[in-house]
Design goal:
This protein is of the alpha/beta class. It is built from seven helices and four strands. The N terminus is likely disordered.
């Protein structure tokens, strides 16, 4: 039985274009997840995801898109936690403070090397407003484009869905769930550093990612 879509009260500060974009995002998510979750859950995840970014977005017109992408990731995570989907691929979550440098480079390398054979997510305890430009430049030097990513928080369902949680500098803020594999990578913080300083951090992260993929028996793309 299909649930009647639930209409949430939209924020009063949204422009007409933002309201339309959010409704369009809602339609896409309902189409994608209507066999997995009810309308109330889908709407709740979309609007709570929007609120996660609303206070710190530098380009408001991108907010509905960010909210949709984050809600989609959270819904996939919840479906995995609840046993509604399982494709056998390992999921690795990279966490740091601002989700702007180390965790984004790790995500970039993991996705680049693993392809569709594994899944990687990232998050921050205090998400920044943009990806570190030096990290973007350093990754571009080795052929990995991370400009399509964005700093975001983590949520309980995302952490619970991960098989491996890699922390790098988020300290006591990093969530701990019993029985989950955790690794803490001691890495210098690239925040405020130029590209020359970021390169050694980048190379260290790549080596660690390759070792992790080997441990997970994930073939590395050539």
């Amino acid at each position: 039985m299909t649930e009647t879509p639930v209409t949430h009260q939209l924020r009063s500060d949204l422009s007409i274009d933002q309201k339309l974009a959010l409704k369009t995002a809602s339609t896409r998510l309902h189409t994608e997840f209507d066999q997995t979750f009810g309308a109330e859950t889908i709407e709740r995840f979309l609007h709570s995801s929007y609120d996660q970014f609303a206070g710190r977005a530098t380009v408001p017109n991108f907010l509905p898109l960010l909210a949709e992408r984050f809600a989609r990731q959270r819904l996939h995570a919840l479906a995995r936690v609840e046993g509604k989907i399982s494709d056998g691929r390992p999921i690795v979550l990279f966490l740091c403070t601002h989700n702007a440098g180390r965790s984004q480079m790790a995500l970039g390398f993991f996705t680049h090397l693993a392809g569709d054979r594994a899944v990687a997510w990232s998050g921050g305890s205090e998400p920044g407003t943009e990806i570190n430009p030096s990290a973007i430049a350093a990754m571009a030097e080795v052929g990995v484009d991370i400009t399509g990513e964005y700093p975001k928080p983590w949520t309980d369902e995302i952490v619970q869905a991960a098989d491996v949680v890699v922390t790098m500098g988020c300290g006591d803020a990093c969530p701990i769930f019993p029985g989950k594999r955790y690794e803490n990578w001691e890495l210098a913080d690239p925040a405020g550093q130029d590209v020359d300083a970021v390169r050694p951090i980048r190379d260290d992260i790549e080596e660690r990612i390759r070792r992790l993929l080997d441990e997970l028996n994930v073939a590395v793309a050539r």
